[in-house]
Specification:
- It is a single chain.
- The chain is mainly α.
- It folds into two domains: 68 residues, Arc Repressor Mutant, subunit A (Orthogonal Bundle), CATH 1.10.10; 44 residues, no CATH class.
- The chain is 63% helix and 7% strand.
- It contains five helices and two strands; from the N terminus they run H-H-H-E-E-H-H.
- Strands 1-2 form a two-stranded antiparallel ribbon.
- A hairpin with a 3-residue loop joins strand 1 and strand 2.
């Protein structure tokens, strides 16, 4: 598995787990792989995975049943979407809209491109 050098590995793992929750790879209230299993499949140190799981637990995405493992909270999808929307609107949106403006892409162009994207990715 390849990792970017622009972001800590544990945060890249949290992003991947959240993506997998949104895609129902890890269903709501379903069990995640153990720290060791996830570390082996991700080719990282178990401490890195534990740090990812701690981050997800602190953000109420997963919870720990002592002695059994980590599970996805019932509201995880909504929390992930809300977090990512906030992240987009508080950081990425300014860059994105600035790029659109510098490239001369009008709201109408963007709207058409977005409609096409949605249609092709249904």
């Amino acid at each position: 598995m390849e990792y970017s050098e622009n972001k800590p590995i544990y945060l890249q793992i949290t992003d991947r787990i959240m993506d997998d929750i949104l895609r129902d790879i890890y269903p709501l209230e379903g069990r995640l792989p153990s720290v060791r299993e996830y570390a082996a499949s991700s080719e990282v140190n178990p401490n890195t995975v534990m740090r990812s799981f701690d981050w997800l637990q602190q953000h109420n995405i997963i919870f720990n049943k002592r002695g059994i493992g980590f599970f996805v909270v019932p509201e995880a999808k909504e929390r992930i979407v809300d977090m990512r929307k906030e992240e987009f609107f508080n950081g990425e949106a300014d860059f994105f809209f600035g790029r659109l403006k510098s490239l001369g892409i009008s709201p109408e162009n963007l709207s058409e491109l977005y409609r096409r994207f949605l249609k092709e990715n249904e």
